[in-house]
Amino acid sequence: MKLQFIFIGLLLISDTIMANEWQPQRLLEFATATCQDWEDTAEPAPGFATGSIVKSEIKFRETIVGTRHRIEVDNDALVELDVIERTGQPPRFVSSLFGEFGDPLVLLSLSADCSLQVARKINYTGQGQATDIVTLDTELEPKGESDWLNPPLEFIEPIPAKPLKHPADDTPIRVGMVDSGVNYRLPEINRRLARDTDGQLIGYDFWDMDNLPYDAHPVNSGFFLQRHGTRTASLLLREAPAVELVPYRYPRPDMSRMQALVEHAADNQVTILGMPLGSNRLEDWGGFERVARAHPQMLFIVSAGNDGRDIDERPVYPAALDLDNVIVVTSADDFVQPAERTNWGRVSVDYLVPAERVAALDYSGSETRVSGSSYAVSRVTALVARLKMAHPQWNAADIAAELRNRYGNSSPGARDWVSTGYIADPLAGATVIKQALPSLELGPPQTGTGFRLPLDILVLDSRWSHQQVEQAVQQAYKILAQCSIIAGEVSIHAVDGEDYLRDLSTGSARTLFQAVGTGQVRVVFARDTRMQAAFDGEAFGLGNTRMRPWLAPSVWLMLGVDDPGVALAHELYHVIANSGEHVEGVANLMQGRTRPESQQLVPDQCRLAQANGVANRLLQD
């Protein structure tokens, strides 16, 4: 039988251990010998253990998946050899080497033929602090760039080129974020970090208890990292462009340190603290609960979590704590409901917030799309920071009251899921300009009997030329004319505002439509879509907007849509008929996918469109 062996070696870094025989080469000898002999012996390679070997079961979700061998070796080191056995798969072997205090050093992965496949090691300072993870080649020599755990402080510029101050009183607006730290090597993050009067970083790592709050969340053996904090922090900084960031790495080894973390923030004039984290253990959060009550002037924005459950029934903490100065948020989908896998609670959770597929920076500095309750925290923390900047005298209670005034009962069904409401667009507030464009030429005036369809056309991207829009509208009316639906009054405007308003999104569409004040069927020629299910054309009638009534009635076309005139007629029919039904038949307009040659509507479809269009006051007979 061919077996795949993965050996993870973990070793304490000290003068004694570094000098002993358990170097990467020695670990490779052990791994190779065990791999080669396992099929015959089913035991770790002999000659390496100096003490006892203890076996125990390995369980995953209460299912036994293998056996662990704990092997004492030289200089108080310990090897764990895990044999993972899953039905229908060959066994997998994981070997971990620990030093006297359990510090990791080397990872070795062997392929099925027992050749070295992956090798990694962790470097440490003389004081035993891990600095980076290095990938090794087949000769066990370093290759490529290190995977940083704690880059030295020289990566942090002492003083930003242009300190960010409050425009009114020249006081820094400091906002804290408690996560896995941030990648302070990125210029976009580095220049926004809060410093003290000596230009030193104010943030802190309460995991390692040092002043290097770098984005690193070790998982499993410690050789694999999750990078989360850079993403949440970058989104916060994008949506609150005049704040100074105080980053914190949360104290996973000892959650009682949350009390010291909040005290540190308070001592450094942080009154707004984003917390995209949580756990199921109430006992982890006693210190935080006490210190949050002791600092009512501070406002904490907390994640509801991403377990897909009602946290009123199965609590997540600190979200479920009863604290007046905690605002709990979750991510909303396009239908103003909790997004897939995110938590909710009609008592414990305050707001639904659009936080699916929003743009952020990942650990490498690349653009990425992020989703989940953590990013609802970033967006609301930024919103709260902007309110604080506009009203420096407001305290936590004032800001919480303003949010309730603005967003309480803001969507008909939001309170099916949360206690307060839906923050449709955390960025709302900027000026939106609506400018009339030349009228469209729709041909000779149509006379005689028919059902007139008035349209209010909004052009959000100048790449939609006047000619393209005109041709699309002309063709749509031509197709709908077979149902005696003819042109009504048509207005056309260009809309200029914040860049994000150029795209279709449930929340930002509310801002757009409130600003332009339209009242009839709206046709929006947009740039792109930010909906979770991305379509080049989308229709919103009464039937699919119960939770988001501001979208009805409207049709959206995105740049690059195929056959804009046919697509427009297709989406307009959905709205007029108040039906999302698609039909079969190659010639029919209402197939699931539009085609240039498919433009037919049959009498039953026409009768439905006429009846519902008149009843819903979309058509004028």
Structural class: alpha/beta
Identify the CATH architecture of the largest domain: 3-Layer(aba) Sandwich
Q: Helical content, roughly? A: 10-25%
Instruction: From the 3D structure, determine the CATH topology of the largest domain.
Output: Rossmann fold
Instruction: Count all strands and give the number.
Output: 29
Distance between the termini: 78 Å
Please describe what this structure looks like:
This protein is of the alpha/beta class. It has three domains: 4-148, no CATH class; 170-422, Peptidase S8/S53 domain (Rossmann fold, 3-Layer(aba) Sandwich); 433-615, Collagenase (Catalytic Domain), CATH 3.40.390.10. The protein is built from twelve helices and 29 strands. The strands form six sheets. The chain has a nine-stranded mixed β-sheet, with helices on one face. Strands 11-14-10-15-16-17-18-21 form an eight-stranded parallel β-sheet, with helices on one face. A six-stranded mixed β-sheet has the order 22-24-23-26-29-28, covered by helices on one side. Helix 4 runs parallel beside helix 7 and helix 5 runs parallel beside helix 6 (286-294). It is globular, with a radius of gyration of 30 Å. 44% of the residues are buried. The model is unreliable at 1-21 and 159-169 (pLDDT under 50).
